[in-house]
Structure formats: C-alpha cells, structure tokens
Amino acid sequence: MTEPFIYLLRVRYAECDAQEVVFNAKYVEYIDVAVMEYFRAVFGDYRNLLEKGMDTQVVNVSVSWKAPATFDDILALEFELKKIGTTSITYSINFSNYETMKPIAVGAITYVMVSAKEHQKMAIPADVREQFERGASGIVNHAGVEIKERSV
Fold first, then answer.
1. Domains in the chain with CATH codes
2. pTM surpassing 0.70?
3. Cβ count near 17 (within 10 Å)
4. Run of H or E residues at 64
5. Vertex 72: Cα angle to 70 and 76 (nearest 5)
6. Which long-range contacts (CB under 8 A, 24 or more apart) does 47-50 make?
7. CA distance 141 to 144
8. What's the pLDDT tens digit per position in 3-60?
9. Can you tell me the distance from the alpha carbon of 143 to that of 68, in angstroms, rounded to the nearest whole number?
C-alpha cells in the first residue's frame, strides 16, 4: 500500500467566525486548494492538463463535520480516490487535527472532465485515467510545521 497524499494547512484568524471556529464555507475553500496541490502532484502542473485541451469542473461537493477547528490549528487533509467514471472522478477528503489526530470533518468532491475551451463534458482519456488511478502520495506542507513520523 502506498502512502496517502496529505495537504497540511494552518487555520488563520480571518477564517474563523463569531463562534471562534472555522467558518463552514472555508472547508470547501480548503478542499479546493488541497485538490489543486493534489493535481499538481499527479500531473506535475495543472497546466499540463490544460495543454492537452482538458479541464475539470466541480459538479458536487459536500462536507460533514465531526468537531470544530479553531485558530492556529494545523489541519491535515488526506485524499482517497472513491470513484472514477467515464467522465467524472470523486475524492473523499478526511480532515483531522494534525497534532492530535482528532477527526474534524469528511469532505467529498466530484469533478467532471471538460474540454478546456468549450467547457463541454468529455470522456477521461486512458492516459489521464491511469494518472488519476495511480494518484499521488506524500505531504504538501503549507502549515510550516515539522513533519511527524506516521505510524502504520
């Protein structure tokens, strides 16, 4: 089994609401940023996909919360490929507090493959499908913390 892909971020003060927890809409923003880092790890650069005349568009996103995240928490977003169809791909993203490992939320996002210029739905080509299936592993650390040794 390969290592998962994990994106680390630090919760900023401006991302918290009057209840002093991360504002719910920020989780979708976190997913979006993390997915772009994931795609960068899979394709080398998202522009490589665009240069092939392909792009992706979000068709569904959801978040279910288990616990709040607060200012200065380090969140780990861990990716799992859930489904790859003819034209779409779905990922599950598990949010946890990186320091305590406490589960925070579970997100899911589905993209449809579209032509880069016309934005028309298209089948995922075999070579791109292979890249999606192979995925990526490792940690992208935008939190500025020391990476912990993971227990198996």
1. 8-140 (3.10.129.10)
2. yes
3. 11
4. strand 54-65
5. 80
6. 49/128, 50/116
7. 6
8. 899 999 999 999 999 999 999 999 999 999 999 999 999 999 899 999 999 999 999 9
9. 18
